[in-house]
Amino acid sequence: MNRPTWDEYFMAIAEQVATRSTCLRRRVGAVLVVDKRLLATGYNGAPSGVPHCSETGCLREQMAVPSGQRHELCRGLHAEQNAIIQAAKHGVRIDGAALYTTHHPCSMCAKVCINAGIRRIVSRHDYPDDLGKSLLRQGGVRLEVFAPGGAAEED
After folding, report:
1. Which residue, among 117, 106, 108, 107, has the nearest Cα to 141 in the 3D structure?
2. Which of 11, 21, 29, 137 has the fewest CB atoms nearer than 10 Å to its CB?
3. Which regions in the chain score pLDDT beneath 70?
4. Which positions are annotated as active-site residues?
């Protein structure tokens, strides 16, 4: 029997979570894990009760905002933010958690992850935001790039 590694397992779940995204530019999924237990998930999209970008169009596209810039000019929340919010909303402690995400966190999400106590982030795809990487290093958060075959390498 060929079982996936824990990193493969949680990354596959993050990729499945991303399929719920309503973002027109990039579908992102995230899962929070402590001691090999999945605690919360999140995907990028508009706040609850607010029309999705798939219904209204992409504000960032309409304003020609480049990827990795002006994060405040978006109707949606990021997957990492939604996972942290879901944990908080349901009273789930995430201090010391690992975050598996399909894309490297932006600088906004990096700051939130640091203050939420996330200690390790495993991402599959890069994101054009070097400040996010720098903040994570300075905040003592291990950032690893998930490689095919299940091995995560420190960035």
Report:
1. 117
2. 137
3. 149-155
4. 80
